[in-house]
Specification:
The complex is a heterodimer of chains A (about 450) and B (about 375).
Chain A lengths: L13 H10 L13 H40 L6 H5 L1 H7 L12 H16 L3 H11 L4 H5 L1 H6 L7 H8 L6 H9 L7 H6 L2 E3 L5 E3 L7 H32 L2 H15 L3 H12 L4 H9 L14 H24 L4 H9 L4 H29 L3 H6 L7 H10 L4 H25 L9
Antiparallel strand pairs in A: 1-2
Helix pairs in contact in A: 4-5, 12-13, 12-16, 12-18, 13-16, 14-16, 16-18, 17-18, 20-21
Chain B lengths: L1 H20 L13 E5 L3 H19 L2 E5 L5 H11 L6 E5 H9 L8 H4 L9 H5 L9 E13 L23 E4 L5 H8 L7 H5 L2 H12 L5 E4 L4 H7 L5 E5 H10 L4 E16 L6 H14 L2 H7 L6 E2 L32 E3 L2 H20 L1
Parallel strand pairs in B: 1-2, 1-3, 5-6, 5-7, 8-10
Antiparallel strand pairs in B: 3-8, 4-7, 4-8, 4-9
Classes of the chains: A mainly alpha (about 450), B alpha/beta (about 375).
């Protein structure tokens, strides 16, 4: 605080600067401490910027540590393939000289290298990890690696190893095994991204779509997108009149209505999802009611749960407040006098609304739609509980690969694609509507 | 009312275990941590472990046992902990399949079963007493459970007596609940398509075999609700949403005996599965000593039999079988509700861990793609 060189107030000081100026009539303008005014100002501004930066530094550091680094690390896994060359350094190097197209198995030295590599891998307990990695591309290989230490013990390194390996497990005598290891010899791989796009490397060196009976992801991405857009549209259709109603009420009523909007918002997600199950299942409340009224017969109860309808209904309900709140806070700021003025100038109700009120509420629609859409596209608990098979999202597969199949590389690739898709949608939105046109209040 | 019953039950178990263990005091534990974090599945299963293992153990040693209900995601969370270099768990309850994965990934510690675990009362070494249930060198088996079918006997005209009745929509109309994964479903489909049980995995290893199983499942696909969590089937059965469905036998036992639902069990071709402990790799020495001390106690013959007093899962030890008694609260004889009881276990198969570890990723992709079609 006692620092004398900084203070902002040194800059404009008319009384003194006049004398300073006189002291150096031809030189630059000087500040109170005799420095050039320009430098002094820049210095002060730098100080200001620095303190602003220091104030936000904790947040930046937090974002970096808790957000950017972990996500970056996760995304890197989508191309990381170090485990193969690092666990089998000699083998992968030797395989570089092997011509797979000739149709012959790799020569004896490759098997010798494999023997040494596997021995080291087994000591480090890396052999099974490598097996799990290779199993993604070559189903059935993980048990070969799991049994490798026992097989190695039975081998005699002084005898030709090729026959011994093939005797131990016929997988070592198959071209496919060696082609796969060779294809995965690099430190990085595009394999996970190919899998995430329902593709695989083709025999001719290019890429091809996997057989139709194995395709999953393209369809899931598309469905995630379509259902998320549907949900966004539904929340808008349902939320707009509610937000309008709340915004046009006197404060007391508006507050009460807002609490009604927020009440489900404060209820556990699982409770709300399960309640929809009770309501919509075939033996549920809604079907019982419809059967009782006689609209549907007992034998033909509607299927509204464990399919995409369940996902859309439950998620629309859950995400509705995220649409209503930004809409409400924007609508609250639209002066009612504009609509009155329009009407007094001869506009009918619809024209006054559509030409005067609605355009002013667009920033709220933008904010609500972006918020709901982004939340919807990453949802997975609700779809998993009520979505059955045709109402699950891509995030359900990501969760599956993270926690069940442990194929984190594929999960990372799927996540990266989802992230890029969201950014592209943002960009398109920016081009069409303008990102400045988004307001939360 | 319920609480008092629980307390009374707990009290009786204390009396019982205290009575049984006065003779054989625990050996002292040298250089051992005073707390232990155990990971399990929550619910009735975790409670059975507390009643049979950790409450008596804490009484005797004064160790503070903290529970974490994360077993469903144990593999992923352990990998994350290991990568962060901060293992916070001491002993983790996982399924046999997960234990293989954890072992493969270097996340679970291989153990010498004969050195770590207690002998049977007659001196049989643990490896022999546990037998086939030791499916990986990291796995310390606890229970045998099964995935099998329950059905609503009041909603069906006749009672199904074979798992193949699940595939018979004409005689048994109505919806079914099946697990949203290939394991179990593929085997049942092939068995009911006429494949001999010994050849199921050979058939499933081929492309045509997978298609054959999926085609068989396809005959009932329109009537299936696919479940993710074991609790869903009992709920779907209770609400009449489905007339039959697969789930863990303990869930069906609870629905039938504890909640009095009009549900019956179908034991034929039940799929055995295992659950047990693993020790995470790289534990500090004092924590590792504590876990070893605990596991020696918690997996002995009497303790495994005690657990069956709280839940209808069979002890993994041969020597525990004759000791299975009555349910601690309901007072019903538990032996006949065990999946391993001879009357229930006439036709069964054990989830082939080794095979599924190899083909799981591939067949799962096929299965999920088929679900979407």
């Amino acid at each position: 605080m006692a620092d004398q060189t900084v203070p902002l107030h040194t800059v404009p000081h008319p009384g003194r600067s006049a004398t300073e100026e006189r002291a150096a009539p031809d030189g630059p303008m000087l500040a109170a401490d005799g420095r050039p005014l320009k430098a002094s100002l820049a210095r002060a501004l730098r100080r200001q910027k620095l303190s602003a930066f220091l104030l936000t530094a904790p947040l930046l550091a937090f974002l970096l540590v808790a957000f950017v680094i972990p996500i970056g690390d996760m995304l890197l896994r989508s191309v990381d393939n170090r485990i193969v060359p690092e666990t089998l350094p000699r083998t992968t190097q030797m395989l570089g000289h092997w011509d797979a197209r000739a149709g012959d198995l790799p020569p004896e030295p490759v098997f010798e290298a494999l023997y040494v590599d596997l021995q080291e891998a087994a000591d480090a307990r890396m052999h099974t990890r490598l097996g799990s990695r290779l199993n993604y591309d070559l189903p059935g290989i993980s048990s070969v690696f799991r049994g490798a230490p026992r097989a190695l013990q039975a081998m005699d390194p002084d005898q030709p190893l090729r026959e011994q390996f093939i005797d131990a497990n016929r997988a070592w005598g198959e071209m496919q095994t060696w082609q796969t290891i060779r294809a995965l010899s690099g430190h990085y791989t595009a394999g996970y991204f190919l899998s995430a796009a329902d593709m695989r490397p083709a025999a001719d060196g290019g890429v091809e779509l996997v057989p139709e009976r194995q395709r999953i992801y393209a369809q899931l991405f598309l469905r995630t997108l379509v259902l998320s857009l549907t949900i966004t549209a539904l929340t808008l259709i349902l939320g707009y009149p509610i937000a309008y109603l709340i915004a046009s009420q006197p404060l007391r009523t508006a507050n009460l209505l807002l609490i009604l909007v927020l009440l489900p918002f404060w209820t556990s997600l699982l409770v709300r999802t399960s309640s929809w199950k009770v309501l919509l299942q075939q033996q549920g409340v809604v079907n019982d009611l419809l059967v009782w009224i006689g609209i549907v017969s007992d034998a033909n109860r509607l299927v509204m749960m464990n399919n995409w309808i369940g996902t859309v209904v439950a998620m629309t309900h859950i995400l509705l407040p995220f649409m209503i709140l930004p809409l409400f806070s924007v609508m609250k700021t639209i002066p009612p006098t504009y609509v009155r003025a329009a009407k007094s100038l001869g506009a009918n109700d619809w024209t006054a609304f559509w030409r005067v009120y609605f355009p002013q509420s667009i920033p709220g629609i933008g904010a609500g739609a972006v918020l709901v859409f982004i939340l919807a596209i990453g949802y997975y608990i609700t779809p998993a509980l009520v979505g059955g098979t045709d109402g699950i999202f891509i995030s359900n597969r990501i969760a599956f690969h993270i926690s069940t199949s442990l194929n984190w590389g594929l999960a990372a690739a799927l996540g990266a694609i989802l992230l890029v898709a969201v950014l592209v949608i943002f960009w398109v939105y920016d081009r069409m509507v303008g990102i400045d046109n988004v307001k939360l209040g | 009312m319920k609480l008092s019953r629980v307390l009374a039950g707990a009290a009786s178990v204390f009396a019982l275990t205290a009575g049984m263990t006065t003779g054989d005091e625990l050996p002292p534990c040298e250089n051992c941590a005073d707390t232990m974090v155990a990971v399990s599945w929550g619910g009735a299963y975790q409670r059975s472990q507390q009643m049979a293992y950790t409450i008596p153990y804490a009484e005797m040693t004064g160790v503070d046992v903290v529970w974490d209900e994360s077993s469903a995601e144990a593999v992923a969370l352990l990998r994350a902990q290991s990568e962060a270099g901060n293992i916070t768990w001491d002993v983790v309850d996982v399924t046999g399949a997960d234990s293989i994965r954890l072992c493969d990934d270097g996340l679970a510690m291989p153990v010498d079963h004969d050195e770590l675990l207690a002998e049977a009362p007659d001196g049989t070494p643990p490896t022999e007493d546990f037998g086939e249930t030791i499916v990986s060198e990291c796995f310390i088996p606890q229970i045998v459970f099964s995935t099998t079918f329950g059905y609503r006997h009041d909603l069906l005209d006749e009672e199904p007596d074979s798992v193949c009745d699940v595939f018979d929509l004409e005689r048994f109309p109505g919806r079914r609940a099946l697990e949203a994964r290939p394991i179990g479903n593929m085997e049942w489909a092939l068995i009911c398509d006429g494949v001999d049980i010994d050849e199921v995995y050979d058939v499933l290893e081929t492309d045509e075999g997978v298609e054959r199983a999926l085609d068989k499942l396809g005959t009932i696909k329109s009537e299936v609700i696919w479940w993710q969590a074991g609790a869903e089937t009992p709920q779907l059965l209770a609400d009449g949403e489905v007339v039959m469905g697969s789930t863990y036998n303990g869930r069906l036992f609870a629905a039938i005996e504890e909640e009095d639902q009009p549900i019956s069990m179908l034991w034929e071709w039940q799929m055995f599965d295992l659950d047990g402990w693993i020790i995470p790799e790289d534990l500090p020495e004092d924590r590792l000593n504590r876990v070893k001390h605990f596991l020696h106690f918690a997996t002995d013959t009497q303790r495994l039999a005690d657990q069956a007093r709280w839940i209808s899962y069979g002890p993994a030890r041969e020597s525990s079988q004759p000791l299975v008694g009555e349910h601690a609260e309901l007072g019903i004889e538990m032996a006949e509700h065990m999946p391993t009881h001879p009357d229930n276990a006439e036709r069964t198969f054990l989830f082939n861990y080794e095979w599924w570890a190899d083909y799981r990723d591939d067949i799962d992709a096929r299965f999920q793609s088929w679900l979407l079609r």
